[in-house]
Design brief:
The protein is mostly beta strands. About 5% of the residues lie in helices and about 65% in strands. It has a domain of about 200 residues. The strands form two sheets. It has a 15-stranded antiparallel beta sheet that branches. Strands 8-9 form a two-stranded antiparallel ribbon. The longest helix has 11 residues. It is globular and about 75 Å long.
Length: about 300
């Protein structure tokens, strides 16, 4: 979210960014689903847990330079960010259940944080609550011929963030604290054995890459093929653009996730919506985006 202004070949933008990434595996997703639906774990199976949470929120300033020639244009933007909140948590281990529904687990935890954390450790001025970061974005447009063009958006193609003295925890978590409560039920009190200290935290955000090839069939209709990558996730699209008098509509299809995507854009705003199921509770992919443009 932000605002930009241009003067000749230079641009200046002020922005706020919010990044949140969750990485998991099939066993972790299955355990989460069973727990949320009050279902029992499979007693014949040992679940291998792997969960990573990665989050940052920052305010920043971008300075850009745009170069244009007859059939080609490029823009590079360098951003400086004031980091407000960050967290990088890694949890791995195993979990199992016996015939009576008793759960046993052991896991390894390590995490950097400036605020929220798994162990709910509070900051009493023990560690830094902020940091800094640098990012570089590159945007390319190339008109190969009357009918073919290529667009490339390389966001966070280089980035580096640092918190000089971040909160840091590392250790083991197990269910050795399990006990029988006053009504005869099993109560789980996970036991953590490890360290709670501070450490320098340096990290990089997953890059966002987008390449679009367009075939301009007519003044109103263009066919497209698109490749997009967000971190380690790859997306492949086929679709078409429809040009209206003062706006355009793009309809494309995510081949791998069988999800249609619709984008409407004019001089003032753009909106994007994609979902792989008409039933929200069954959807595995949901994408909603909105941009507002104002020239001054």
């Amino acid at each position: 979210m932000g605002t930009s202004s241009y003067w000749q070949h230079l641009s200046l933008s002020v922005a706020q960014r919010y990044d949140y990434f969750v990485y998991s595996n099939r066993d972790t997703a299955k355990v989460f689903y069973l727990d949320r639906n009050d279902l029992s774990l499979d007693t014949q199976e040992k679940y291998h847990i792997a969960l990573k949470l990665f989050h940052q929120r920052s305010n920043g300033l971008r300075i850009g330079y745009k170069y244009e020639c007859e059939n080609f244009s490029s823009e590079i933007r360098v951003g400086y960010w004031d980091l407000n909140v960050t967290r990088e948590s890694n949890l791995t281990g195993t979990l199992a259940s016996d015939l009576n529904g008793n759960i046993s687990a052991i896991a390894q935890l390590d995490e950097f944080y400036t605020a929220n954390n798994f162990l709910k450790r509070r900051n009493s001025n023990d560690w830094d609550a902020d940091g800094t970061g640098i990012t570089i974005d590159i945007h390319l447009r190339w008109q190969l011929s009357q009918y073919f063009s290529i667009n490339a958006d390389l966001k966070d193609i280089y980035n580096h963030f640092t918190v000089d003295e971040s909160g840091f925890s590392a250790g083991n978590i197990d269910t050795d604290g399990t006990f029988i409560n006053s009504v005869g039920g099993v109560a789980y009190l996970p036991v953590y054995r490890g360290k709670e200290t501070t450490s320098k935290h340096q990290f990089e955000l997953p890059e966002h890459l987008s390449f679009i090839g367009l075939y301009h069939h007519s003044e109103q209709i263009s066919y497209l093929a698109r490749y997009k990558r967000q971190g380690e996730q790859n997306f492949y699209y086929l679709g078409f653009d429809i040009a209206h008098e003062n706006s355009s509509t793009r309809i494309s299809f995510d081949i791998e996730n069988t999800a249609p995507e619709i984008q409407y854009k004019n001089d003032r705003f753009s909106v994007t919506f994609a979902i792989d199921s008409l039933k929200i509770e069954q959807a595995m992919l949901l994408n909603l985006g909105f941009n507002l443009y104002y020239r001054f």
